[in-house]
């Protein structure tokens, strides 16, 4: 093998530094906004349990929660969860539109029941401020380049945020506000590096929203594809009381009390939240691709929602893979998901 020249070594070192600069580790506590659909699978509820555990550990500062589905009870369910974990005053923004309209993206086996049993049965998303309003308020009040946005649902709220104009919160339009305030967008969607002819659910249900966001987002994007989380299975303690614990109740409703599935689900967005708050490139995660570009096909493309990552052009898009066994990652996440307010065993040391 030919010996490396000095120039080759310099180029290699610079390349490493570029990747490290893009995927710089977060500094605790992380300012975070979670944007989730809270509609189909119960893993969405587990996402919030994990997030609030990290907040209780002092590792995350939750600026706002956004719901992106067209389900009327997604936002009230988020409020139930926030109150259950001791954070009743967190700002919650609800998408008020009707995209996606597909049954698979609007029906929920648990949101209405959770709202009725643990909250206010008359509460619907119409009683919450619009998602863009909450986004803009939260971003405007945050330090520059400090906010990590985790997208675990559909993309209409993020699209509307980018398209929003100046208001009393900020004189910047949406794209400039995001560029000023957001450090990183972490997405739990897609299959990498190429989803082929089988687009992932979130992209397939909202191809136009996802396509627009990936084409126009002004800061770095780090994607956690479904291949990372499909075998990382999490859920509440089997001994939890579903009459008192809305997380356990939601998982039970999703699984029809165990008749159709165990009360566990893949932890897709939970992994994205963990990365957003704790980082872990080189330990928990490995780099699948960095300093490239992810393109999501819109509804006019032959395969709407298909995503493709390429090395060129460099638009500061990356995707990660897990560097530890699925069981190791599941153990870490289950400790967080199953935490109580006084239990600190899941906190990072």
Write up this protein.
The structure is a single chain. Helices cover 38% and strands 17% of the residues. By secondary structure, it is an alpha/beta fold. α2 (43-56) packs parallel to α13 (268-278) and α7 crosses α8. β2 (60-67), α3 and β3 (92-94) form a beta-alpha-beta unit. It starts with 5 loop residues before the first helix and ends in a 12-residue tail after the last helix. The chain has helices at 6-22, 43-56, 74-84, 103-106, 111-118, 131-140, 156-163, 174-181, 201-205, 207-216, 226-229, 246-254, 268-278, 326-337; strands at 30-36, 60-67, 92-94, 147-151, 182-187, 220-224, 233-234, 265-266, 285-296, 307-310, 317-322. The model is unreliable at 8-18 (pLDDT under 50). It has one domain (27-337): Ribonucleoside hydrolase-like (Inosine-uridine Nucleoside N-ribohydrolase, Chain A, Alpha-Beta Complex).
Task: Please state the second-level CATH architecture.
Answer: Alpha-Beta Complex
Q: What is the top-level CATH class?
A: Alpha Beta
Low-confidence stretches: 8-18
Q: What is the strand content? A: 15-25%
| Overall pLDDT level | 92
Number of domains: 1
Question: What gap, in angstroms, lies between the N and C termini?
Answer: 43 Å
Give a quick summary of the entry.
This protein has helices spanning 6-22, 43-56, 74-84, 103-106, 111-118, 131-140, 156-163, 174-181, 201-205, 207-216, 226-229, 246-254, 268-278, 326-337; strands at 30-36, 60-67, 92-94, 147-151, 182-187, 220-224, 233-234, 265-266, 285-296, 307-310, 317-322. It has 349 residues and is an alpha/beta fold.
């Amino acid at each position: 093998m030919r010996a490396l020249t000095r120039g080759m070594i310099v180029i290699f070192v610079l390349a490493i530094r570029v990747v490290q600069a893009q995927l710089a580790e977060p500094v605790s506590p992380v300012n975070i906004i979670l944007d989730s659909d809270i509609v189909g699978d119960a893993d969405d509820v587990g996402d919030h349990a994990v997030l609030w555990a990290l907040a209780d550990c002092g590792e995350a500062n939750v600026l706002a929660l956004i719901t992106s589905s067209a389900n009327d009870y997604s936002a009230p369910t988020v409020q139930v969860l926030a109150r259950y974990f001791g954070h009743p005053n967190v700002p919650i923004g609800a998408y008020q539109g009707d995209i996606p309209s597909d049954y698979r993206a609007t029906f929920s086996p648990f949101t209405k029941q959770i709202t009725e049993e643990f909250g206010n049965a008359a509460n619907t998303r119409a009683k919450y401020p619009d998602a863009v309003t909450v986004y803009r308020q939260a971003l405007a009040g945050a330090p520059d380049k400090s906010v990590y946005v985790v997208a675990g649902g559909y993309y209409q709220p993020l699209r509307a945020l980018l398209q929003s104009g100046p208001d009393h919160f900020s004189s910047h339009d949406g794209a400039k506000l995001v560029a000023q305030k957001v450090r990183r967008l972490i997405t739990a969607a897609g299959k990498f590096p190429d989803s082929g002819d089988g687009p992932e659910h979130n992209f397939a249900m909202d191809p136009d929203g996802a396509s627009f966001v990936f084409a126009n987002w002004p800061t770095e994007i780090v994607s956690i594809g479904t291949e990372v989380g499909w075998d990382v299975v999490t859920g509440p303690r089997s001994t939890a009381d579903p009459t008192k614990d809305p997380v356990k109740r939601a998982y039970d409703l999703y699984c029809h009390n165990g008749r159709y599935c165990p009360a566990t689900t893949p932890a897709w967005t939970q992994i994205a939240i963990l990365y957003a708050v704790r980082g872990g490139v080189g330990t928990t995660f490995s780099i699948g691709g960095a300093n490239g570009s992810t393109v999501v096909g819109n509804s006019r493309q032959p395969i709407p929602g298909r995503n493709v990552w390429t090395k060129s052009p460099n638009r500061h898009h990356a995707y990660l893979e897990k560097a530890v066994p699925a069981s190791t990652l599941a153990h870490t996440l289950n400790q967080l998901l199953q935490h109580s307010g006084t239990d600190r065993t899941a906190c990072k040391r």
